[in-house]
Amino acid sequence: MRRLMFLAIALALLLPVAAVSAQTTHTVTRGQTLYSIAQRYGITVADILSANPWIGSGNVIHAGNQLVIPVPGQPAGPAPQPGQPAPATQEVRHTVAPGEYLSQIGQRYGVSYIDIINRNNISNPDVLHVGTVLIIPGVVADTTPPPGPTGEQPQPSSEVRHTVARGEYLGLIAERYGVLVADILRRNNISNPDLVYPGTVLIIPGVVAAPAPADAPPAPVNVPAIGGGFALGGQALSFAWPHHMHAARMTWVKRQVRYHAGDNAANVRGVIDQAHGAGFRVLLSVVGEPGQMAGNPSGYISEFANFLGGVASLGPDAIEVWNEQNIDREWPGGQIGPQAYTSMLSQAWNAIKGANANVMVISGAPAPTGYFGGCSGGGCDDLPFIRGMAAAGAANYMDCVGIHYNEGILSPDARSGDPRGSSGHYTRYYSRMFETYASVFPGKPLCFTEIGYLSGEGYGPLPASFAWAANVTVANQAAWLGRAVTLARNSGRVRLFIVWNVDATRYDSDPQAGFAIVRPGGDCPACGHLAAAMA
User: Fold this and answer.
1) Angle, nearest 10°, between helix axes 34-41 and 269-277?
2) Are the C-beta atoms of residues 86 and 78 closer than 8 Å to each other?
3) 19: how many CB neighbours lie within 10 A of its CB?
4) Which of 232, 315, 317 is nearest to 500 (CA)?
5) Which helix (H) or strand (E) holds 276?
6) Residue 395, CB half-sphere, CA atoms under 13 Å: how many?
């Protein structure tokens, strides 16, 4: 009997030890984010936030911070700070305000919008009415964060002023600063987003003032290639419809970042954190200013590569190095050429991989065209351009080959029959576009960083320069995107398929909204086709 009592006491003493063993400690290293750490341990960002109440509302962590990591499947309370009781969790109630959507509400409370859907038995996440009261599960009761364990205070948000330049629009400005278009509209009392002109001064709310990243160490040229299976994503301009993207089974989001000489890479942190917080991997398409490059190409390219290294240290999942570098809209006129671009790509590769070898490097996708009749400093057709890249050794400086396809008016199964002039040109057809790039870079996976079908349905006549798509319906767009995903998956060569685009609203001389899968009224006919193709 005494022996049994001893065993019972011993077991009782061991029970607290078992509870403690249900958590571990992680030291944050340079380039890590809450999202990447959560993925490493198989938990969610909300789990980390609950176990580490000192993390501020901006989810800012720094190299050297100590995080408590709960072990999956075993409940472990957060480690209390010295002299303070452990915070209790509770379910709070949130009343939906005008303009709010589920992923935005989830980000506010540090929980997954999927958890909100499940907790509230929401059958249709697209229907969320103002005034609806939502139960937010697993929120830490005490939301006032004490100083972090290293003595660092959460970084304050600030408001900056931005003067609209020629060619800029609200989606691009919001991407640059990592904020929502809706936030800019509210802060500046803008009722009509189309009435934003060059010279307008905008107040940009909620920009995190973060220090510049440390200099990247010398980078090895040879690092393991980034692998992985087929993945689907979409380019988002305002990122206002993540629930549609999830419904389409997209796991990636593409955001474009434009580099201006002297920019701080830390300004991109918000874009990355927003995407990761909504449950997406993020591809950053980083492009610079041709006018700034023209006077001093070598100096500008060196600065651009250093900027990319700083961005890589923030933990994006992929970086596309420039955009449509074969035309004078995106590269200085007179200086266009595959050798010049490959020189940039090599410096970018070294800077990115030196800062974070886990970032996938995608070559800039040339504009698909036969307009130039060859290749010269004033512009190049995409086929001679990629052949020139291959001859210059570009395959050594990329994980994936960037491709754009956005002029189709036939099913992706078609290989002929386009009614326009030059109907035999490969850029008219998805399958021939795929085969062309696959043959030039036989040892590399392909990344469609922009693929879409234009339809003016719901918007009115297309501008004259885009009238070639006048007969494409929204039903065509939806079905063709779904079929293209199926073909890309089955090919075994496509790593990434980014739909251009999710949510553009601009419809003028550049009818971006006609490519959008979210149509006027907020529905997404293509989402079902994409989800079926990914099933």
Assistant:
1) 40
2) yes
3) 13
4) 232
5) helix 269-277
6) 14
Strands 157-163 and 446-451: unpaired
Name residue, tokens 């251009």. Answer: 500
- pLDDT, residue 21, reads 41
pTM of the model: 0.61
User: Is the pLDDT higher at 149 or at 105?
Assistant: 105
Residue 213 — left, alpha, or beta (φ > 0 → left; ψ -120 to 50 → alpha)? beta
Contact 305, 24 (CB under 8 A): no
DSSP 8-state class, residue 78:
P
* pLDDT tens track for 160-199: 788 877 656 676 676 566 666 777 887 888 877 767 777 7
Which band of pLDDT confidence, cut at 50, 70 and 90, is reported for residue 63? low
Residues near 502 by Cβ (< 8 Å), separated by ≥ 6?
234, 235, 236, 237, 241, 244, 245, 516, 517, 518
Residue 91 has pLDDT above 50, yes or no: yes
| Dist. CA 162–CA 183, nearest whole Å | 14
Q: Which two tokens stand for residue 171?
A: 């989606």
Closest CA to 203 of 267, 156, 160: 160
Sorted by sequence, the CB contacts under 8 Å of residue 217 that are 6+ apart come out as 354, 355
Beta strands 231-235 and 252-258 are: parallel
- Closest by CA to 282, choosing from 190, 175, 197, is 175
What are residue 38's phi and psi, to 5 degrees?
-60, -40
Residue pLDDT, tens place only, 453-474:
999 999 999 999 999 999 999 9
Give me the phi and psi of 47, to 5 degrees please. Answer: -60, -45
Task: Please indicate whether residue 24 or residue 14 has the higher confidence score (pLDDT).
Answer: 24
